[in-house]
Write a structure and sequence with these properties.
Layout (H helix, E strand, L loop, with lengths): L2 H15 L22 E5 L22 H9 L4 E6 L1 H4 L9 H16 L3 E6 L4 E2 L2 E2 L8 H14 L5 E3 L10 H18 L4 E5 L9 H4 L12 E7 L13 H4 L5 H16 L2 E7 L6 H17 L2 E7 L21 H10 L13
Parallel strand pairs: 1-2, 1-10, 2-3, 3-6, 6-7, 7-8, 8-9, 9-10
Antiparallel strand pairs: 4-5
Length: 356
């Protein structure tokens, strides 16, 4: 048995039994992380595509960013990228070994990002599921997520800026199931990596607007004090990010998004916790939605809250929210102009400014 495998199994046993080297110590106060100030990031979609089966091929069923994509976002001032990943692709069987070929793919991604001066957030983009099972089901017990993160952190400690425990968990049997699974995952990571920031999403799609409703009891302890809560913020009535109407047809108040944001920031302030908007996106060609977004971005800057734009990636070009150029060297997409405007400190006075 390899040293790494012994470490993983010993660490998981410690997590499940409740033992930890920090068990007798009080939780530390939150320490400085890379998420304690306003910063704009972007999600590069592609690696989370497909079903995650071993017969899928890179470039056909899923993909990783081209070097031109890393270069483009680096030149635009983005130095941190959220990288969505498919659980089943990395760990084909629950509590099984990580796939060595896919570990090699991620090592290549890390290397190419670093060559452009970019660090990565490892985002497990599975919505609280593994194939058809939900976390807490008999075939996907609560410690299954901890097993994945223990193995992943054992291999990649020090190579990601943050671990995103799970993208938008929802539909679990109980709300407590997510809290318990997340806590076990944090304990597992800290057995092997005490430095990397951990991002914890909220129950029921992680929506900022209803964060307090679904996450009243969500309180995760990190013995290293580097836990950040991740909410998602879209401007559609159902917070889905599927914009079926223009902002004028939807009669949206320009401060609508800010009110949704405050539901999350108020929760954070009550607990003295750090937060992050892990997804936010809008149809950039619509000046009304862009104005709503500009107000949200300005509010995030005022609050010292980081925000990650959804989405980019070569396969996202046809999505109206995408900021991926239509081809290398093409003009910036409309939403990119909004991001750069707010990132520069400007405060627009009307949505029409975004179409100039």
């Amino acid at each position: 048995m390899s040293y790494q495998r012994r470490t993983v199994l010993a660490g998981l046993a410690a997590v499940i039994s409740g033992w930890s080297p920090y068990a007798s110590a009080a939780p530390r106060a939150a320490r400085r992380t890379g998420f304690d100030h306003f910063q704009l990031d972007v999600s590069l979609s592609g690696y989370e595509a497909g079903k995650g089966t071993r017969d899928e091929r890179i470039g056909k069923d899923y993909r990783i960013p081209d070097r031109s994509t890393w270069t483009y976002f680096s030149k635009k001032g983005f130095d941190r990228i959220r990288f969505p990943m498919k659980w089943e692709r990395l760990q084909p069987e629950v509590k099984g070994e990580l796939d060595h070929q896919q570990l090699g793919v991620l090592e290549k991604v890390i290397s190419e990002a670093a060559a452009s001066g970019i660090t990565l957030i490892a985002d497990l983009h599975n919505y609280g599921s593994f194939r058809s099972a939900k976390i807490g089901d008999p075939v996907l017990p609560l410690d299954a997520l901890a097993d994945f993160w223990l193995r992943f952190a054992s291999h990649f400690a020090g190579h990601f800026e943050a671990y995103g425990l799970m993208n938008e968990p929802h539909g679990l049997r109980t709300r407590e199931a997510w809290s318990r699974a997340a806590q076990l995952a944090v304990k597992a990571i800290r057995e092997v990596d005490q430095r990397t920031t951990i991002l914890c999403s909220g129950n029921e799609w992680s929506g900022a607007a209803k964060w307090s409703q679904y996450n009243r009891a969500l309180e995760i302890t990190d013995p290293c004090g580097a836990l950040v809560y991740e909410a998602h913020l879209y401007f559609t009535p159902d917070n889905s990010g599927r914009y079926r109407q223009s902002a004028s047809d939807a009669r949206v108040d320009p401060l609508f998004g800010v009110r949704r944001l405050k539901a999350f920031t108020g929760w954070l302030k009550e607990r003295g916790a750090q937060g992050y908007i892990g997804e936010c996106g809008w149809p950039g060609a619509d000046p009304g939605w862009a104005f709503v977004a500009a107000n949200v971005l300005a509010a995030c800057r005022d609050e010292g809250l980081g925000l990650c734009y959804w989405l980019a990636g070569e396969w996202s070009r046809h999505d109206p929210k995408s900021i991926q150029p239509q081809y290398p060297g093409a003009a910036d997409r409309p939403s990119m102009k909004t991001l750069l405007l707010i990132g520069s400190g400007e405060r627009p006075v009307s949505g029409a400014e975004f179409l100039k």
